[in-house]
Specification:
Layout (H helix, E strand, L loop, with lengths): L20 E4 L2 E7 L8 E7 L1 H14 L9 H18 L6 H21 L13 H8 L5
Antiparallel strand pairs: 1-2, 2-3
Length: 143
């Protein structure tokens, strides 16, 4: 296939050593202390890397940018859902719950700011409904 090993990037990582981790294909691999066995056991923790989370936040920023204020909210949410489902399917290995929560929180804040700046009058949710419930009613998929 003509592949060559890059000697500058190639290294041996001993994950069993304290503080050792490996970033590969958007994931971070490291051994963490077990929460159940009184901290005696350890398990291989696999979750999205900080670099992957930063790229995802940047993608959400682009999808909710000021230049897209004219896009109808249902169309924007449909596009966001398509993107988020693909991202979550790729990063659904290991223990991604904390990372998915971070993306959900960031997405809610971006959509709230987007809705506030769309009009001269600030956005208000329908009476008796929270912003979270309103976004769910509009069809936003939470990870």
């Amino acid at each position: 296939m003509g592949l060559e090993i890059n000697r500058q990037k190639t290294r041996v990582v001993r994950l069993r050593e304290k503080g050792a981790s490996l970033d590969f294909l958007g994931f971070t691999f490291r051994f963490d202390r077990s929460l159940y066995e009184n901290g005696q056991g350890r398990y291989l923790n696999v979750f999205p890397s900080e670099k992957a989370l930063a790229r995802e936040r940047e993608q959400v920023r682009q999808l909710t940018a000021r230049q897209r204020d004219c896009v109808p909210i249902p169309a924007m949410i449909e596009e966001l859902n398509r993107h988020l489902k693909g991202w979550a399917n790729y990063f659904n290995h290991g223990y991604p719950r904390k990372a998915l929560r971070e993306i959900n929180t960031f997405l809610e804040r971006r959509l709230y700011a987007h809705l506030q700046r769309r009009s001269q009058r600030p956005f208000r949710c329908p009476e008796g409904r929270s912003f979270h419930a309103h976004l769910r009613k509009l069809g936003l998929v939470y990870l």
